[in-house]
Specification:
Elements (H helix, E strand, L loop, with lengths): L1 E5 L5 E5 L6 H7 L19 E4 L12 H8 L8 E3 L13 E4 L4
Parallel strand pairs: 1-5
Antiparallel strand pairs: 1-2, 3-4, 3-5
The structure holds FE2/S2 (inorganic) cluster (FES).
FE2/S2 (inorganic) cluster binds next to loops.
InterPro entries: 2Fe-2S_ferredoxin-like_sf, 2Fe-2S_ferredoxin-type, Adrenodoxin-like, Beta-grasp_dom_sf
Cofactor: [2Fe-2S] cluster
GO molecular function: 2 iron, 2 sulfur cluster binding; electron transfer activity; metal ion binding
Length: 104
């Protein structure tokens, strides 16, 4: 399984998907270090902000209140914004495209 990752400079890379692992971890393990993820997945920093592939929105875990409130603090929130540490990967997300949101 794999994910197509779009970096801030527009370049693309492929990262491996692992069942049950969150997208933030997969992106960083795959070399997407510009996704800072400063809180380490604790849903408190919003530096793991991504734009998800709209074709896959229905296959994602829903946004919790906590995640939604953090996203509201971002200047770059868009319709398909998510915090990547809050989304577990599963086989149904294979082939998804993810864009890293601009730095705050
Ligand atoms: Fe901090 Fe996701 S890593 S909110």
């Amino acid at each position: 399984a794999q994910i197509q990752l779009i970096l801030r400079d527009g370049s693309e890379m492929t990262v491996a998907g692992r069942e049950g692992e969150n997208l933030m971890k997969l992106i960083r393990d795959g070399g997407g270090y510009e996704l800072l993820a400063l809180c380490g997945g604790g849903c408190s920093c919003a530096t793991c902000h991504i734009y998800v592939d709209e074709r896959f929105v229905d296959a994602l875990s829903p946004i919790t209140d906590e995640e939604g409130e953090l996203l509201d603090c971002s200047m770059h929130r868009q319709a398909h914004s998510r915090l990547s540490c809050q989304i577990p990967f599963h086989a149904g997300l294979d082939g998804m495209r993810i864009e890293i949101a601009p730095e705050e």
